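for the writeup, i need someone to sanity check this before i put it in the appendix. the sequnce is what the collaborator sent (i think, or maybe the updated version? ugh). structure was predicted straight from it, no edits. if anything looks off just tell me and ill rerun, i have time this weekend
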Amino acid sequence: MDRESKQYIKELITLGTPHSSNSTIDQTRGLLSYINDRYPGSYEPTIRYKSVIAAGINGKFSFNLLQLVAYISYYALAGRGATRGDGIIPLEASTLNGAKNIVIQEEVLHSNYIPTPFQSVKLGNVKWYGDAEVLKEIML
């Protein structure tokens, strides 16, 4: 990032973003390693960093679609599926060194749909990072 651009950026907030991986599966196709090698942690000293992750969804190998998708997604980043996160990103993968790491303990989903190889499944009345009440909590 050039000097001129940095003057306009005061804070970077990531929502359910993987910042690390403990798995041999590279779900990001090398992108995560590339970024961490070149821009580790809260790289720019003049920018405040926040990493927000929800931890209300338990990954579980079960017939519950939400828990099963979480299990598979968590396994790809954490190396184990039976952990907590936002249904897509596990808690331990979202920690960013040097950032204010915010953990939302309630059930807040990564998004308001479940991704599939075909047409994604739109979820009904669920709470996700884009909801006004969640954004308000994050901005505090």
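The longest helix spans residues 65-78. The helical segments are 3-6, 31-38, 65-78, 132-139.
thx in advance!!
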